[in-house]
């Protein structure tokens, strides 16, 4: 067939052998890591669980209570359970504390440093507060949370010294007011993160849920990567860890199904823009984006109706800054951080 000079692919696309081998070798299931097995593997390791939380009073209590009951009170697998209060305006801190977590304020842990915002900064503050050798991060908006989320993430780290970082994956229903779309969740993952990572970091294509907010790593390694603010943090962390420790030291674990609070489409647009910004900085580092250049930072969106609606648009214009910043690797700043945690 004449395609006017376009290159013709005469074979079907196939999965990269590297990705297939990694996904086979480095994927486990939470069922592979029963608590008993982890208790005998734990040895001298201390385990911290950190939940970043901004206005999560509806869900944070149940997550904290479950971890405390199953993994702290019944068996001493988790040594430290920290909720980072990320400038909540609701009762997140009180609810978390009442359920048995230690609560630290994002701002207290970053006192004396530039004021940054968003989830990435909350995670950095949580890592600064945590004392464990293994640190697991869990989103605080999860529903129907069960302890295997924690055991699955920390299992490979406690048992296999060659693993440095473990990312969770799961099925993601999109739960609406009146219906559930079985695999409809993870919209930013499918429309933005996965295409970006596949095209520019194809080694990472085997991660089923690259944006999952549930992951664990060795403190020593987590302290050596920068944390991007906002919602760029997971994308940057995967790329940076790939460069720092290599694909073979990264693993993923099947956690079954995950339900969480869905953000609206406009919020996911802003999240996507932050992820694009994050990718740009890493492309620059590779020399694939021109040095010194930077994408715009303002995202213009439209909201139906509203008191400020422009008559010809029947919509309000809403603008947001979607730029991201970075906290440097924690190891570089340790001496400047507050020595003791200050309760939020
Ligand atoms: O300023 C903030 C914003 C969020 N959070 C917490 O971070 C977690 C995840 O935030 P959420 O708004 O629920 O994110 P999702 O819409 O679920 O986004 C998905 O995709 C993001 C981008 O990769 C990841 O950061 C998330 O973990 C992942 O669940 C929750 O516990 C939030 O309370 C903060 O602590 N501070
Ligand atoms: O991880 C994602 O892709 C975003 O958090 C959106 O998730 P949702 O589509 O399940 O709300």
From TrEMBL:
Q: What is its EC number?
A: 2.4.1.266
Q: Which reaction does it catalyse?
A: (2R)-3-phosphoglycerate + UDP-alpha-D-glucose = (2R)-2-O-(alpha-D-glucopyranosyl)-3-phospho-glycerate + UDP + H(+); an NDP-alpha-D-glucose + (2R)-3-phosphoglycerate = (2R)-2-O-(alpha-D-glucopyranosyl)-3-phospho-glycerate + a ribonucleoside 5'-diphosphate + H(+)
Using the record's annotation, list all stretches that form the Glycosyltransferase 2-like domain. 48-159
Which GO molecular function annotations are given, in alphabetical order? glycosyltransferase activity
Names of required cofactors: Mn(2+); Mg(2+)
Write down the Pfam families for this protein, in alphabetical order. Answer: Glycos_transf_2
UniProt xrefs under NCBIfam families: PRK13915.1
**Family as reported in the entry's similarity comment:** Belongs to the glycosyltransferase 2 family.
Q: What is this protein called?
A: Glucosyl-3-phosphoglycerate synthase
Q: Which organism is it from?
A: Micromonospora matsumotoense
Q: What is the lineage of its organism?
A: Bacteria, Bacillati, Actinomycetota, Actinomycetes, Micromonosporales
């Amino acid at each position: 067939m004449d395609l006017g000079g376009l290159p013709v692919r005469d074979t079907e696309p196939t999965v990269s052998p590297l990705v297939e081998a990694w996904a086979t070798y480095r994927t486990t299931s939470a069922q592979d890591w029963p608590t008993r097995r982890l208790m005998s593997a734990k040895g001298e390791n201390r385990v911290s669980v950190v939940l970043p939380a901004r206005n999560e009073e509806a869900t944070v209590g149940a997550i904290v209570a479950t971890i405390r009951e199953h993994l702290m009170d019944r068996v001493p697998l988790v040594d430290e359970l920290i909720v980072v209060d990320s400038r909540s305006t609701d009762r997140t801190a009180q609810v978390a504390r009442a359920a048995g977590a230690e609560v630290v304020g994002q701002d207290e842990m970053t006192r004396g440093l530039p004021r940054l915002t968003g989830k990435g900064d909350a995670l950095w503050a949580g890592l600064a507060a945590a004392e464990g050798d293994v640190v697991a991060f869990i989103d605080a908006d999860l529903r129907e949370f069960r302890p295997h989320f924690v055991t699955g993430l920390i299992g490979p780290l406690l048992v296999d010294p060659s693993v440095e970082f473990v990312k969770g994956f799961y099925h993601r229903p999109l739960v609406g007011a009146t219906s559930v779309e079985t695999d409809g969740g993870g919209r930013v993952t499918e429309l933005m993160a996965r295409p970006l990572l596949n095209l520019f970091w194809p080694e990472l294509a085997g991660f089923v849920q690259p944006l999952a907010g549930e992951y664990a790593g060795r403190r020593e390694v987590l302290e050596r990567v920068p944390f991007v603010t906002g919602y760029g943090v997971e994308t940057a962390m995967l790329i940076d860890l790939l460069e720092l420790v290599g694909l073979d030291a990264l693993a993923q674990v099947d956690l079954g199904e995950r339900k969480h609070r869905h953000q609206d489409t406009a919020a996911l647009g802003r999240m996507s823009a932050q992820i694009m910004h994050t990718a740009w900085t890493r492309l620059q580092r590779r020399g694939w984006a021109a040095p010194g250049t930077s994408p715009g930072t303002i995202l213009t969106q439209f909201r139906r109706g509203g008191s400020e609606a422009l008559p010809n648009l029947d919509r309000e214009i809403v603008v947001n800054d979607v730029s991201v910043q970075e906290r440097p690797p924690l190891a570089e700043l340790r001496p400047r951080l507050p020595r003791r945690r200050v309760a939020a």
